[in-house]
């Protein structure tokens, strides 16, 4: 359809194919670039800062076991370490709008 609309001859088709391949190559190399892995507490990082095995992952811990957290995705990040929690509740929030003082799972500094 593009070829008909642009009325491309063989040379034009070859140029278009080469351009498409170059663009595809650029996008493919972009897939090789990635961000560093962020610690996701309960998945690839334990609540005690120790790396955990894949079979041991659990987003519930002693610091949030009495919170009755719903498993609704609402990620929050610990500003100092960059560790991510599944939701404020799983970070152990004791208040609706908690700062670092109202969160029981964060390390006490």
UniProtKB/TrEMBL annotation:
Keywords: Cell membrane, Membrane, Transmembrane, Transmembrane helix. This is Kazal-like domain-containing protein. InterPro entries: Kazal_dom, Kazal_dom_sf, OATP. GO terms for cellular component: basolateral plasma membrane. Residues 57-107 form the Kazal-like domain. GO terms for molecular function: sodium-independent organic anion transmembrane transporter activity. It is found in: Cell membrane. Pfam families: OATP (PF03137). The keyword Repressor does not apply. It is a multi-pass membrane protein. GO terms for biological process: sodium-independent organic anion transport.
